[in-house]
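Lab meeting, action items carried over

1. Structure of the two-component assembly. Owner: GW. Status: complete.
Input record:
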Amino acid sequence: MRSTLTIAAAALLAALLQTTVLAAVPGLPVVPDLLLVLAVYLGLHHHGLGGVTGAFLLGYLLDTVSGTVLGLNAFAMTAAYAAVHLVARTVWTEGWPSTALVVFVAAGVQQLALAVAAALVEDPTPVWQHVWRYGVWEAVVAAAVAPAVFAFLAWERRLVGAAA
Amino acid sequence: MLEFLRRNLVLLASGLFLVLAAALVIRTGGETARADRLGQAFLEVLSLPQRPVAALDRGIRRAERSVVELFRARQEAAALRARVQALEQDTVRLGELAQENARLHALLDLRQTLRGDLVAAHVIGRDAGTLSRTLVIDRGERDGVTKGAAVLAPSGIVGHVFLAARDAARVLLITDHNSGVDAVVQRTRARGIVEGQVDGGCVLKFVKRTEDVQVGDLVVTSGVDGIFPKGLPVGRVTAVDKRGQGLFQAVEVTPAVDPGALEEVLVTRGPVEVALPPPPS
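Predicted assembly:
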């Protein structure tokens, strides 16, 4: 319950930041995908139905505030979660360098999944163009902010735990 | 089988969610409007903090813009202040040039009224003491300036050179107490010697009591002393006193030239005389 609360609050905050402050920063070519970092967090720390449901809902939340096609980000976020889950099962992922690397990989998977899902209903060329132009940058930025987000989640969990 | 399911529960669930998401994509892909209740709920929840955060964000950006604009305004103000200073300096310099131009014009006019060899000089120094009244000019023997040369200004005589160096000369002003200039009252031709006083004024000495001298009379050079050309202004009579004993009357003269304001002068380089205006035809 505490974990769910923590993730829900963090997701709300992430969506809030992505749709207000970060989206309005002038000259920022890409917006850090904090929701993806949360999905990676779930993939690394929540190996169960709750984790995958959370990732789906994170994507769904992103669909609510981004794009017009419902399910695109839900699909991509679930795919990223599954990829992270597979990685976490085989590779040691503690410490901020490996965390950042996992987020970088998850960002790549997310974008590929996004392009695949988009191809189901529309011409995927614009999505591929976006991936080609900004994919690496988005992955780098997400990886860069990941340690901070993970630290915030750890702090938030302690806070919620202390309050409970 | 159960073990496989348990071990791969997450992947299987992920697969299910992927299918669900793909179904959502396919279902809503062609639609121009969405009506998902979960999305509406998310939007509703998110919009609650979005409003104040967006307002705060706008406020911060506005403040940031204000700070940037303030900074720019300060920079512009500094640049404008510097520009104003430069322009003020230009104005002062232009004013100086205009005044110098006027003075040089006056000097040129004087030069045209004289016949002979003259050279213009700048005043580059003044007397170091308060008893004597002398000037230093930037012309010397190399320019043909010799001891005894008359020094003139547009409004009258200044003094004469008493020491000439190679590139400079010292001028004894007519207001110095050691100076004596042979002069006449222009109106009555009453003759006397204009001598300097320690207070910076002049007196016309040796004018007979019988001579007609009045306040306001112009005193001009007589040309007899061999230094100054005849007929140049020396000063104006400001006081006449005949009450004392003796042969002469006391005549106070205010010099035509203010030595303190002098910056350029003409120096004679030989005999000079005042050119008479051509007779009316």
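2. GW to write a short summary for the group page. Key points so far: DSSP finds three helices and 14 strands in chain B. The mean pLDDT of chain B is 86.
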